[in-house]
Structures are given as structure tokens and as C-alpha cells.
Amino acid sequence: MILIGSFILATTLYHFHYQNNLAEGGFIGIALLVKNALNISPSITTLLLDIPIILIAGLYLGRKLLINTTIGAISFSVFYSIIEKTSSNITFNFGNHLWIPAILGGIFAGLGLGLILRSGGATGGDDLITIIMSKKSKISIGKVYFIFDFIILLCSLSYLSWNEVGYTILSVAICAKVTELVYESKFQKKSVTIKTNEKRLHA
Questions:
Q1: Domain limits for position 83
Q2: pTM of the predicted model, to two decimals?
Q3: Number of structural domains found in the chain
Q4: pLDDT of 7-34, one tens digit each?
Q5: Range 79-84, long-range pairs (CB < 8 A, 24+ positions)
């Protein structure tokens, strides 16, 4: 499921976000900044950012999450690189109708992220930083994510308009909600199973 989630995420970020000048938060957002400034592929930038953070985070987090995050980070970079090289002629440019890629990008990016998280992994080093900062500072993960993404989006104004950044915020909000729905559905199923088993035991 991690590989499927990574493929969906890579496809979405290239065709819906990058091709329509929509930014992104986290390390992927930084990678898009570097892509526009230095024309370096996000597949390279994300790996350079993720690898040292993942190794350091291994001291604080469990081995399983570390392995799954490594798989997620590498597979995303590989998929994005392949998509970038093989399907650059396939464009999903919606012109001035940025609400379309914002909504569709948010939905599919959230689906990809949700599948990765649901499988016990993470999308990269930025997620691990968020988890560690949240534990150390006692600030909720949602607030840490928001602060991190907000800073990246402000930096994106160096190559994007306020209009594009605004639609990016819409996409990020939708992505967060879809991610939450996909991720929490796993625990809802477990809760139903536990309650069902309890009823059987009492019967």
C-alpha cells in the first residue's frame, strides 16, 4: 500500500500541482521551490533532505516506522522521476481555473498520503520532524504541520502569485481532510471489530 500511495502522490504532485503552478508544504514544497529556482528535480532534492533526517529520526522512533518511511521516501522519488521523464508531454493545465487542480490535487494527494500513513509509514523526513517536534514541545501534530507548511507557502510567493498560493492553501486543506479520513478509517474498523468481539464474549 505504501508503493501505491507513493505512486498516487507523485502523479498528483507533478500533473496537478507542478503543471498548474501550485505549491506544496513540507519537504516536497521545498523541493518545488528548488525546482523553480535551480531546475533540480524534486526527486533528487527530497532524497537529499529525507535521508539524513530519516537516519537521525531512527534514534527516536521505532524501527518499523523508520523502514516504512524509507520505503515511502525512496519510492516517491523514483516514481516522480519516472513520471517527470516519461509523461512530461501529458499536461493537465487548467489555465485560470485553478480551483479544479486544487480540489482534484487535494483529493488524490490526500488519498496517497492516507494510504502511506495507514500502512504504518510516512511520506518523508518532514513527517518525522513533525512527529518528534510534537512529542518534544507537546504541541499537536496538526499545529506543527500548519506552521511548517505556512512558512513554505510564504516562501513560494517568490515564484507564485497570491492567487496561486491561495489555491494551494485550499488544496492543502482538502488534502489534510482526505488524509485524515483515509488514515482514521483503519482505526474505525478496528474499533468496530473490538466492539463486535466484546458483544460475542458477553453473549
A1: 2-202
A2: 0.76
A3: 1
A4: 999 999 889 988 888 877 888 788 878 8
A5: 79/6, 79/7, 79/9, 79/10, 79/11, 80/10, 80/13, 80/14, 80/41, 80/42, 80/43, 80/46, 81/41, 81/43, 83/10, 83/11, 83/14, 83/15, 84/14, 84/41, 84/42, 84/43
